[in-house]
Write a structure and sequence with these properties.
The protein is an alpha/beta fold. Among the domains are: 206 residues, Glycerol uptake facilitator protein, CATH 1.20.1080; 84 residues, GMP Synthetase, Chain A, domain 3 (2-Layer Sandwich), CATH 3.30.300.30. Helices cover 63% and strands 12% of the residues. Strands 1-2-3-4 form a four-stranded mixed β-sheet. It is extended.
């Protein structure tokens, strides 16, 4: 048991890979500065992120996150608090404040001059922070500071920059200032604050956990005061995010239930759903129907159906778009169109079933290969498909058969093992009609 525990500890400990404290200190101090190279990189990252948000390009936004140097001062703030290096903390805050102001000014100028002022999804995504953003920032920050502390730096820092997304919220805040939309500004600034505080907190936690040496003399009373300040800041940033996270979950649940409800009431006898709209903010669902005229009883039955999907408090708005009343007698073309629409719906459903079946076969081949290689590593490839077995006797119906082809490399498979594989496949696929081939 002790041996197993020691082996487990040896796998999870990072102490042997820890860099020298002086090297870690120098690396963090170097990344704090915003002059020369870092300053130019920051300026370019601001413009790239603003263009990406303006054009709603996810790839461009990710590029801006990768080249942004904002992580340096944030890690510096957390590290300096952990080591009670007040001079370094003041320097980190000064450089960080400069970077934030420069980013806001540059993005505001860009969006003021840009002819495109529409708020696309990439901009909207930065205005509603929640508890999930706290978790992303915290665990992303933990990964970042551990990577900085390790001799093997790897490619963690770019990944952390993408996950925590420091630059886009600043540019979104600039958009809010440029277009005088304060809800954009405050939402984006709050998201940026969450990322900043919890990345710094992660840096502080790891620095203390790894026992980075304290750089200045400090008494216990000052330590307690610093800890109180940290706790206060965390509470101020963290508590509102819980509320926003709760509202996000409520909205997602409402959308999920509303989608199921709309699917259930999309076709009622001769009445067809033409358009639907879900308003999560006001918890309302708007439905527009076509087809035969809708009486009050049918309308009420549609509204009452919402209760089956936990939408008791939702406001259901049912409207009639157009009707086919009298079309059968007075307009043969409309009646024909109605039949054609029904035929198209049926054909689309059949096509979708075929597509789903093909995709399922593709995935099943990969799953079988992955599972069987644990027992027979000489199997290098697997082809899986479904077919029909026909007999010369026409009275016998064609039987659906599962066909599996394994490609081997090296050792062959004995007859006993082939029999075992076939029985396993029958159980795994829950099918008796199986043909297995090897090459």
């Amino acid at each position: 048991m002790n041996i197993l525990l020691k082996k487990l500890v040896s796998h999870v400990t990072i102490i042997p890979e820890l860099d020298e404290f002086d090297a870690i200190h120098s690396s963090i101090v170097k990344d704090i500065a915003f002059k020369g190279t870092n300053l130019w990189i920051l300026m370019f990252a601001i413009i790239v992120a603003s263009v990406g948000l303006n054009m709603n390009s996810t790839a461009v936004v990710i590029g801006a996150m990768l080249i942004s140097p904002l992580m340096g001062p944030i890690n510096g703030m957390g590290y300096s608090i952990a080591t009670y290096d007040i001079a370094l903390f003041k320097r980190a805050v000064k450089n960080f404040s400069f970077a934030v102001i420069a980013s806001l000014v540059a993005s505001t100028i860009y969006f003021t001059l840009s002819p495109i002022s529409t708020a696309h999804s990439e901009l909207l995504a930065r205005t509603s922070p929640s508890i999930y953003d706290v978790l992303i920032a915290l665990f992303g920050g933990l990964a970042g500071i551990i990577a900085i502390s390790s001799k093997q730096k790897g490619n963690v820092i770019p990944g952390v920059a993408i996950a925590t997304a420091l630059m886009p919220p600043l540019c979104t805040a600039g958009y809010g200032l440029a277009t005088f939309q304060m809800n954009f500004f405050f939402g984006a600034i709050y998201l940026f604050t969450i990322n900043t505080v919890f990345i710094a907190l992660a840096s502080l936690f790891v620095s203390q956990l790894l026992k980075f040496p304290i750089r200045t003399l400090v008494d216990e009373r000052k330590k307690r005061r610093v800890n109180r300040y940290i706790s206060t800041v965390i509470a101020i940033v963290f508590l509102p995010s819980i509320y926003f996270g709760y509202t996000l979950v409520v909205k997602e649940k409402f959308t999920e239930n509303a989608t199921k409800y709309i699917s259930n009431v999309s076709l009622l006898d001769d009445i067809y759903l033409l358009k639907s709209d879900i308003d999560t903010k006001n918890e309302s669902i708007s439905l527009v129907y076509g087809g035969s005229s809708m009486d009050d009883e049918t309308r009420q039955s549609i509204i009452d159906k919402a209760k089956d999907f936990n939408l008791d408090k939702a406001q259901i708005l049912v409207r009639q778009g157009f009707t086919f009343d009298g079309a059968e007698e007075h307009n043969a073309e409309l009646y024909k169109l109605r039949l054609e629409l029904s035929h198209v719906d049926t054909q689309l459903a059949i096509k979708q079933q075929k597509i789903d079946s093909i995709q399922q076969q593709h995935e099943m081949g990969k799953i079988i290969l992955k599972e069987i290689r644990t027992m027979y590593p000489q199997i290098q490839a697997c082809t899986f498909t479904q077919g029909f077995s026909h007999h010369i006797n026409k009275e016998k119906e064609a039987q659906q058969t599962q066909i599996i082809l394994f490609s081997l490399e090296g050792d062959t498979i004995s007859s006993d093992n082939k029999s075992t594989i076939k029985n396993w496949l029958k159980t795994r696929l829950q099918e008796d009609q199986i043909r297995v081939y090897y090459n």
